[in-house]
Amino acid sequence: MLPTDSVIDLRSDTVTRPSQAMIEAMSSAVVGDDVYGDDPTVNQLEQEMSELTGMESAMFVSSGTQSNLCALLSHLQRGEQFIIGADYHVFKYEACGSAVLGGLAPQPISIPSNGQLSWNDVLAAIAPDDYHFPISKLLSLENTFNGMPIPLSHQNMLAQNARQHGLIVHLDGARAFNAIIALDISMKTLCEELDSISICLSKGLGAPVGSVLCGSAEFIAKARRYRKMLGGGLRQAGLLAACGLVALRQEVPRLGEDHDRAQRLALALQEIDGINVPEAARTNMVYIEPREKDADAFHQHLERHNILINASKPKMRLVMHRDIDDSCVQKFIDACASYYRMKPV
């Protein structure tokens, strides 16, 4: 089924379409050649992101994957090791580019059910000073993780301890704006103990393309070289950066609406016999577990009602975003209820 205006798409917040304000901003954007550094709209976006994070510099890139890869390549040398959660996006879902293209050595560690890495596990993963092992140089974190906002106190504890052991700290903050809304803190506060952060503009913020990598001026200067190597040197990128500026100014304040809808959905689904909601809503995400024997038929039932979800098993993830309003939430609830009313127990 192809997404259309009549389809309710809960697969991810990456499906959010650019707003009319973004389209208008693209059409009127003042552009230049960003490889030469003279695209004023890109420069404005980078300046605003630098100010928001409290970091010296920022770089607009085409994707979160490219942003994280540029960060790791800039922080580490070939053969050096970074410690990372085994289910973090950088390790699990970015085609292992750090190893394939950078010659870096990831050291994955387990993630507890609350999403908060154990410092003891991190400490145990730091390689001893022995030439049989790669040199541990960086701790790669993620916030939010599967929609869970990681408490600032815990993130800071990990970062401070890591730094005491000589580790650089990078955060994959693809949904960092969801994190700060949930934690009720500023982006600058979230970033205080970090060396670098990657923030996505094309998920809940709804821009069609782009992420921003933030860090020190020296780090970003090095990252620009790697962005070029990775084919990420864009020319009149202001057309895309204009959407990012609209995202920062108009979409961040409304992210709480997605969180509220996720909570409403989770509470309603808990009342349907046949669907297990194993935990509270996580920012803009709800995880459900239909009866195992129902999973495929349940997914097909939703498709017949023009509803798209990721049909993973046993948990299915539902993601709220700007294109999902209250009526969409109610239609999903009604579709779930109709399936289980029709099924014999």
Summarize the helices and strands and which ones pair or pack.
Layout: E1 8-9, H1 20-28, H2 40-53, E2 57-61, H3 64-75, E3 81-85, H4 89-92, H5 97-100, E4 105-109, H6 119-125, E5 136-142, H7 152-164, E6 168-173, H8 176-183, H9 187-190, E7 196-200, E8 211-215, H10 217-229, H11 238-251, H12 255-269, E9 275-276, E10 285-290, H13 295-304, E11 307-308, E12 316-319, H14 326-342
Parallel strand pairs: 1-11, 3-4, 3-5, 5-6, 6-7
Antiparallel strand pairs: 2-8, 7-8, 9-10, 10-12
Helix pairs in contact: 1-11, 2-11, 3-10, 12-14
Structure description:
This protein has helices spanning 20-28, 40-53, 64-75, 89-92, 97-100, 119-125, 152-164, 176-183, 187-190, 217-229, 238-251, 255-269, 295-304, 326-342, and strands at residues 8-9, 57-61, 81-85, 105-109, 136-142, 168-173, 196-200, 211-215, 275-276, 285-290, 307-308, 316-319. The protein has 345 residues and is an alpha/beta fold. The protein has two domains: 8-14 and 254-339, Aspartate Aminotransferase, domain 1, CATH 3.90.1150; 18-252, Type I PLP-dependent aspartate aminotransferase-like (Major domain) (Aspartate Aminotransferase, domain 2). A seven-stranded mixed sheet has the order 2-8-7-6-5-3-4, with helices on both faces. β9 (275-276) and β10 (285-290) form a beta hairpin. α2 (40-53) packs parallel to α11 (238-251), α3 (64-75) crosses α10 (217-229) and α12 packs parallel to α14 (326-342). The longest helix is centred in the C-terminal third of the chain and has 17 residues, at 326-342. The mean pLDDT is 95.
